[in-house]
Amino acid sequence: MKAVGLYKYLPIDHEDSLIDINIKKPSARGRDLLVEIKAISVNPVDTKVRSPKNVEETDPKILGWDATGVVVEVGEECTLFQPGDEVFYSGSLNRPGTYSEYHLVDERIVGKKPQTLNFAEAAAMPLTSITAWEALFERLGIDTTNKNENRSKTILIIGGAGGVGSIAIQLAKWAGLQVVATASREETVMWVKDCGADFVINHYGSLKDQLVNLQIKNVDYILCSNDTDQHWNAMGEVIKPQGKICSIVDNKYPIELNTLKSKSVTFVWEFMFTKAMFETEDMISQHHILNKVSKLIDEGMLKTTLKETLTPIHAENLRKAHRMLESGKTIGKIVLESFK
C-alpha cells in the first residue's frame, strides 16, 4: 500500500524529509480497526517528530495523527465498530501513523464521523477536539452542566486562531463561558471572532492592560496554546486567585511556579496522547469525546476548523503542509485527502 514516511530526520526543504514509499498492508487483531484512510490533517506534533535529529531508521517511520476513513476490518475483540463504519480519530504516538492508505488503530480512541461533514472537513477535528475537550473539561474542570453559572466566568485562550484554539473557543462558548482569545493579524482576528470569541486581544501586547481596557480585571481560566515561556509571567498576572491554567505547549526554559503561589493557582498540562501511550483505564473516554463532538457538529453547535485542503496525499504535498505549519502563520487546520 502507498504511504509517506522517512528514514532520516531532516529539514523540511530536503526532498528526503518525507518520501513516498510502499509498505505491507496490515491486518486487524484484538481491539484494532483497519481503516481505509480518506483524509488526514497535519498538526504541530507531526513537525516536531519529523524535526532534524541524529537518528536514522532501518524501517520507515510513518507520521500522522489525524484521520478519517472507512473501517474495512475489525479485530476479534472489537465491539464498538463494524466494517463499513465511517470514523474519525487521532492515533497513538507509539504506533505507525496515518500517512498511509490503510491504518491500524485501537477502537477505544475512535469516534463515528460527523454525518454532516465530508471526510476532509472531519479530518480537521480529532486531535484538536480531544485536546480542547480534555483541557477544558478534564484538566481545568469546567462543568458543562452549569452553563448559567459559567456565564459569569471568563476564559482566556492564548493562540485562538490555531487548530486547538479554534475548537476550544467553540467548546468554551458551548459551555457558557465568556471567551477572550488572542490573535495578532487581521485575518486571525476575523477567524477567532468567527469561531465565537467575545473579545480579541493581541498576544504580543500586554495581556493585563488589554484586559483592563475591556473592564476585565482577571480571568477564571487560561488555556495556553502558544509559547508557554513567552506568556508565563503574563498568565500569572491576569489569572484570578484560585484560578486554573492549562498549557499544551512545551516550555524550553525552567518555569517559576512560585509565580502562582500567592494566588493558589492550579497549573496543569494537557497532552492528548497520554491515554493511548499509557493505555490508561479511561482510554475509552476519547471514543466518547469524539462521539460527543460528532453529535455537537451534527446539531450545528460546532463547526469544522478546516482552512485549506491539499490533494492528493503524497510526499510533496505533505512537505508543503509541514512548511506551512512551521511558518507559524497557519489558521485553523490543513487537510490532505485521497491517495489516488
Blueprint (SSEs and pairs):
Elements: E1 2-9, E2 19-22, E3 32-41, H1 44-50, E4 53-62, E5 67-74, E6 86-89, E7 102-106, E8 110-112, H2 119-123, H3 126-139, H4 147-150, E9 154-158, H5 163-174, E10 178-182, H6 186-195, E11 199-201, H7 207-213, E12 219-224, H8 228-238, E13 239-247, E14 266-269, H9 274-278, H10 285-298, E15 306-310, H11 315-326, E16 333-337
Parallel strand pairs: 9-10, 9-12, 10-11, 12-13, 13-14, 15-16
Antiparallel strand pairs: 1-2, 1-4, 3-5, 3-7, 3-16, 5-6, 6-8
Helix pairs in contact: 3-5, 3-10
Notes on the protein architecture:
The protein is α/β, with parallel strands linked by helices and 340 residues long. Helix content is 30%, strand content 28%. It is built from 11 helices and 16 strands. Strand 15 (306-310), helix 11 and strand 16 (333-337) form a beta-alpha-beta unit. Helix 3 crosses helix 5 and helix 3 (126-139) crosses helix 10. The mean pLDDT is 97. Homotetramer.
Structural descriptors:
340 residues; alpha/beta; Quinone Oxidoreductase, Chain A, domain 1; Rossmann fold; seven-stranded mixed beta sheet; six-stranded parallel beta sheet; 11 helices; 28% strand; oxidoreductase; ER
